[in-house]
Structures are given as C-alpha cells and as structure tokens.
C-alpha cells in the first residue's frame, strides 16, 4: 500500500517540481537587473529539473514494484504497451523520455556554445520541454487515480496557470523588443 | 591559452556575463558587453565557463587556441 | 555645377596604358570577338602555375579588404565554389558594374581560370545591377564551353554585399553576416571582387614580368577608380597603382577640392594632397575617390553619409543597431554646434563590436572626417558655414 501511495505522491510532486522548472525556464529571457537573482533562478531551474527527474524515477520505480498497478516494465518503457490505461500511461512515458533528452542537452549547454549549429539545435530541443510538460499534465489528468479530488484539481490548475503565465511573460517581452526594433527602422 | 569570443548576433545585452566576470566584461550604455581582455589564462577557465553556460542567449564561447 | 555619378553608361578613361579598360575607347561593349581581338586568347593554366603567378604579381583583392589573392587560392580546397562578387553596394562605386557591362569576358576569363585550377563545382557571378547581369548572361551565352557559369541577382544593400552575407544569401539563407568569423575558404568557397578576377585574366596574358611593368614594386599593376562628387568628369578611371591623387583630380576636372573620401564609405577622409599615392597600401580600398569641395557643407555631407551607414545596419548586433544611430545623431548635432567628443566616443564604442566590419568601417569614416573637418566644426559652433548640403557624396536610395 505504501508503494502505491508513494507512486501517486511522487507523480504529483514530479508534476509540481517540473512545472516550477518549466516556468523558470520560460522566464530566463526577462531582463531583471540583478544578476544574482538571475543566477539563482537558473540554478533553481536546473535543480528543479533534476529533482523532477528523480521524482519521475521514483514514481515509475514504485509503480513497477507494485504488483497490483498493472503497468509492467514493458508497459512503462514502451508507449501504449501498458495493460492499464495504455494511452494515458503512454503520455507519461513519452513525457519522461522528452524530459530526459531535454535535461541531457541542458547539461551539455556550455560545451555546445562552441558550435553555431549546435546552439540552434540546443534551442529547438530544449523547447521540447514545454511539450514534455504538457504531456505530463495530460498524463496526470488521465492516468492519475487522484485526478478527481478537488485539491489535486486545484494544484493541477495552478500548475497550468504558472506555465501559461510564464510563457505569456516571455512572449510579451519578445513582442516588446520587436516593437522597439520596428520603431528604430 | 583560451580566448573568450562573443557571437554578436545572439547577444541580447542581458548582462549576466558582466556581473559574473566584472574584471573582464564591462557593459556599454545599451547593456552590451565590452570585453576588456579576450585571452583567458587556465586559472580563470572555470569561472569563464560558468559565464558561458549561464548566458541566456548562449552568445559566449570559449575557444581553445 | 556638381556632376553626379550616373549608371554604367558612365565614361571610362585611362591614365597610362589601359589593361582592364582596353578596347573600351572604341567599343561600347566588348563581345567575345572584340574581346579576343583586343586581349588575345586566354592561356591555359593550372593551380600551381596560377599560384606562382599570383605570388609574383602580389595581386590583392579589389573589393576593399585587399587580401592577398594567392593566399586565398592556396586555402581553397578542390571542388570549391567560386563566387565573383559583383554586388557593388558601395554607393560611390560603379567600377564593378561597368566592368561587367562593358568587358564581361575579361571577368569571366579570370573566374573560369580560377575555377578550372580548383576544379570548382560551381561558379557564380553575383550581381545586383540588372544591366550588368544581362550583359554577363549574354557573354556566357557567347561561349558554349563556360555554360556552367551561373549569374545570380543579389538583393542589394550595403551589408548584404559583404562576403559572408553574400555567400549566405546565395545559399538560401538571410543576406546577413553570420555570428562567427570563419573564413569562406574553410567553407569551400573562394569569393572575390569582379576586378580581382579581371586583373588575373590580364596577368595570365601578360605574364608576371610585363604585368610588373607598371605600378610600384610592392604593388604592381593598375587599379580601377570611381571618381565622383565635385568633379566635372566623373566615372571609372584605370590608373597605374601609385598614381598621385593630383593627376587623377586634374583628369577628372576637380577644381578646389576640400577633401577626398578614399576607398569607400568604410574608408577615410583625406586631404586632397596632390602627391598622395593611390594604392591599396595607402587606403585605396574599393577604388572610390569621392571629392568634396567648398561649395557644399562638408560637415553636412559627413552627417548625411553617417546617417545612411546607420540605416544600413543589419540590426543583428546590439552595438551596431544602437551605436550607429547614436553616432549619426552625434555627427548631425555638429551642424548645430555640438561637441565632437560625443561622436569620437561613440565611434570608439562601436569599433570592433559586431559580427562584421560595418561598425568598424563607419567608425573609421567618421573619425577621419572629424579629424579633417575641424574648421567646419568650429564654424558651425559659431553659427554655421552658410553652405547648403549639395549631396556630393552619393548615397543610394
């Protein structure tokens, strides 16, 4: 029973922590004066991402260890191969893979700065994080057994607002810079 | 010996680099970096690499010569 | 009346024996028959012999940067792409489109010689001017064996004519310089100015000894100049390298020049010293000799071109995007008695901080102008010089 509770808790915690990571990632573009704040924000982003990956591992591990979960190793690793809610679980698997890819490239960020093509690739791949987050949110909604509880629903909506809000701020900043550029021509 | 180079087409004047490497990078009136020296002795490579990794636009790079 | 620069119908003249402009006193354009009658057949060559020739004549690029062509050829791999840069986006220059329109075969000879020496996979003549492009197409059509040479129209624009920007534009990318300063030869491309290829074609026929018959020892040969501004007879002039400025100004009909902009708008303002030798080593650059005289407000001319240079920024790099307009404002303020120290400061701030040399060139143009026009600056501080800005320095639309 503990395994089951741990699995659900880890899943929810992963979603919250990864929401934090994604939001902070979106906000790196805004120009805050204090470098200290920005450096802390970047390090928090990375820590949250790492923690999120760890919580995903815990979430998957406990589900596989739990005989009654009905997912199975192939069900977890291969999208749509789960006997329990195959589509919903698949969303989670794909999200996890994307997060791993994004994080791996993120670790190599400094090294990639040397190549012009690599920096472009880095940006595109890292942007997949938004997609991974979205899939994770849908996974939680459809595969999560606590999705119908009011407090879980509230948390879910807060996560949604956090990331949407951060993206809006980022896009707004870019639009404002575009206006400045336009005015200068 | 390594050198610190800026890809000006990526630089957006965030200014993190100048805060992290105050002895090496100043900022002009529009916020863009002014390199006071480009060669990086081996002892400072770690600090410079940190700035390279933290630049939001990935505009810095460390070139090995 | 100030004569202004017109399009490639412009006159071509020579001081001394013509090489690039040979035959153009008799023919409006040299078609292939006239070209062979004038210059003779193109001798064949190979990579080692070509490099040896280029070393012997010390040919440097005629697009402004003056890079040794032998070194460029050495660094070019086999199977490279050869690009003839005829984009000529320098407003005060028309030597390249004149050469392409009236003596295209000479340029093609040079391009083809280089192409066969490096076993080039592609040869492209990049041109902006429509007349010149058509002339090159016609010339290619006259020579079945060089049908592989392509003509590409370029969009025009000062920065788009820069080597790496041009290269990018031709390959489907944006016509803007990339963020990294990598040599084009390392990307398998040999790019050089129209006139460079034409000079090579002349050298192949003359051989190193006769080529070195004219011009100084260190920089033999001739150069094409574009005379414009306060001259009675503007146009393209071929001169032996090292010809004193005074001779050229006399031939062009300059009366009472105040200053000369030498090289182009990335070049420098110079005093019209008659003994100033015109050579790559003394700042000849892209061959621009733009004359400013006492009838116009020279400071206003400086301000006008600086504003134009600011508008030419590709806008990719912060120091150029913000710094050049600031520089232009500082120079304009001099007309109302402003402090030149502001312009000097901004010129220093933008220098060397960008993906290409546009801010550096603009800084050089302004700094040299400020150094020379001290009288005018003082006059404007005391109220003005009383002269209109006649536009003797051409800027494109």
Written overview of the protein:
Chain A has one domain (2-184). Chain A is built from seven helices and no strands. Chain A has helices at 2-26, 35-65, 73-77, 86-107, 109-112, 116-143, 150-184. In chain A, helix 1 (2-26) packs across helix 6, helix 1 runs parallel beside helix 7 (150-184) and helix 2 (35-65) packs across helix 4. The radius of gyration of chain A is 18 Å and the shape is globular. In chain B, the strands form two sheets. Chain B has a three-stranded antiparallel sheet, covered by helices on one side. In chain B, strands 2-3 form a two-stranded antiparallel ribbon. In chain C, helix 4 (95-102) crosses helix 5. Chain C has 14 helices and ten strands. With 397 residues, chain C is of the alpha/beta class. Chains B and C meet through loops of B and helix 11 of C.
Please give the structural blueprint.
The complex is a heterotrimer of chains A (185), B (65) and C (397).
Chain A: H1 2-26, H2 35-65, H3 73-77, H4 86-107, H5 109-112, H6 116-143, H7 150-184
Chain B: E1 2-6, H1 16-20, E2 25-27, E3 33-35, E4 39-40, H2 45-54, E5 60-64
Chain C: E1 12-14, H1 32-39, H2 47-57, H3 69-74, E2 81-86, H4 95-102, H5 104-117, E3 122-127, H6 130-141, E4 149-153, H7 163-170, E5 189-193, H8 194-211, E6 222-229, E7 235-240, H9 245-252, E8 257-262, E9 268-270, E10 288-293, H10 298-311, H11 318-333, H12 340-350, H13 358-372, H14 374-381
**What fraction strand of chain C?**
5-15%
* End-to-end Cα distance of chain C: 22 Å
> Can you count the beta strands of chain C?
10
Count, helices of chain B: 2
| Largest sheet report of chain B | 3 strands, antiparallel
Structural class of chain B comes to: alpha+beta
The separation of the N and C termini of chain B measures 6 Å
User: pLDDT average of chain C, as an integer?
Assistant: 94
Low-confidence residue ranges of chain C: 1-8
